[in-house]
Amino acid sequence: MHIEDNTEDRKELYHYQKEDIDAIFEKFEGRPDNYHLLYQLPTGGGKTVIFSEIARRYIEKYKRKVLVLTHRIELSKQTSQMLKGFGVKNKVIDSNIKDLPDHDDYSCYVAMVETLNNRLKDKKFRMDYVGLVIVDEAHYNSFRKLFSYFKDSFFLGVTATPLSSNIDLPMYETYNELIVGEPIQALIKKGYLAKAIMYGYDVELTSLKLGINGDYTVSSSDELYSRSIMQDLLLQSYENRAKGKKTLIFNNGINTSLYVYETFKAAGYTIKHLDNKTPEDERKKILTWFKNTPDAIVTSVSILTTGFDEPTVETIILNRATRSLTLYFQMIGRGSRKLPNKDTFTVIDLGNNAQRFGLWSDPVDWHYIFKHPEQFLENIRTDSDIESHHVYVMPDELRNKFKNTPNIDFDIEEQYTIMVTDRKLKPKTVIEKSIRQHAIMCIENTESIPEARKLAKELEYDIEYRVKQYAKLLAKTTKNYRQWLMDDYKHRLNLIIGKLYYDHYSEEGKNSALKSSN
To answer: Once rounded to an integer, what is the mean pLDDT over residues 510-517?
Structure first.
């Protein structure tokens, strides 16, 4: 077996990594050759470092070969380099490798799933001499097709989230046991990961549709996140929380990402777009630019969630909703690398994701998820449940624009009880009173009708929240009716601003207009 002496270049293992490696080797003892073990460790915890040392020690101790399986070519190359750093002489089996005449020269192989499956299926070469198979990103199900070729090999699956990408193929059917590594909170406290400062914005997601894979469809996400109101929210949240910081934006669809690119470019920011169709040369140029530019922004789609490691990322923006726990952790994990001058990073959540799964650093019962994935998925909070608890709070920057108005509150439910339930008035009187209050707010804080109407446009989220509360009280309302209510509200607000403005500034009507609103 071939172990090279690269002791000087080898990465120093942290205490928790050594403990986990020892625990895994204890599992090797006394277990059958075909035992399947799963190891969980958060993104940024050093999974590749750990399994590289495991490969080195296994080869040295058991004098048998190791195979590392990955699902992307970038991961294969990175893994091969890390193994070399640990003195493990390895060969990457890619599409150019048709046979293994030099099989005795290597103690370890790194292979992509599809390539290796094709070679083994065509009987180009056999690998029954492999003692240990390490499966990186083990939650992907593409690996299962290879398991039958290694019936007498010990399997070590490695993942940050032991939850199968396919609910019909749960991980407990593939792996006999789960070992859980250090949790995120502990890695933060011990100084191995940066702390996430998370900002959430309540987003209306009722228009999103679920696809057959259990996550939101690209088409429905594109439709929602391409809207001007969502693009404005994205830009505003960036400017308020992350301006000038190196930022990575995750989207669900290419159309959305291109809209983001145009929105930020028009606002004068330096930004580049990446997706899985971007040519490799261009992608490398963009990522090099991103690495070397302090305030760089990259907007991306399904390309940088795995196999991408850029420690200088300061802000992660989730410009999408997901029902995939794995994806949630992968996206945020891209910003969690710690540097001497980086103890924290910013996460801006525009998809109610933290409300769905909890904060990134919250404790997770991985043993429960591993053993009972169906129950876990069934109990993920629904969008309607999340949104029923949303309460709109006007941002400080906007509140300052209404500083001449002492009280901007308006409780739709309370007003409905007073005016409709108690006084038996028509429901529309509640909306009329709300519109009047908004109109007076705009008049009190401007000096002309055009200015007041311009200010009214900034009340979009407050109006949306009030209309949503009102529609809920009306019981069964359609999506089209709620949209009509919104449009009608804005139209009438513009009209009443004009009417009340003259009343407000006329000698006779100025005081009476304000009194009648109370």
So the answer is: 50
Give tens-digit pLDDT for 167-206.
Answer: 888 999 999 999 999 999 999 999 999 999 999 988 888 8
Q: Which of 399, 352, 391 is nearest to 198 (CA)?
A: 352
Buried/exposed 180-197: b ≥16 CB within 10 Å, e otherwise = bbbbbbbbbeeebbbbbe
Domain span holding position 446: 396-515
Give the number of residues written for the chain. Answer: 518
Judged by DSSP in three states, 273 sits in strand
Question: For residue 85, which amino acid is it?
Answer: G
Span 98-110, average pLDDT:
78
Q: Identify whether residues 162 and 205 lie together within a single domain.
A: no
Phi, psi of 469 (to 5 degrees): -65, -40
| Residue 253 placed within a domain | yes
**Same-domain status, 224 and 142:** no
CATH of the domain at 214: 3.40.50.300
Quote the number of domains for the chain: 3
Q: At what angle do helices 254-266 and 218-225 cross, to 10 degrees?
A: 20
114 shares a domain with 29: yes
Domain presence at residue 467: yes
Structure tokens given for 295? 């305030």
pLDDT tens-digit readout, 467-494: 988 988 887 778 788 889 999 999 999 9
For residue 410, is pLDDT > 80? Answer: yes
Range 247-268 average pLDDT? 95
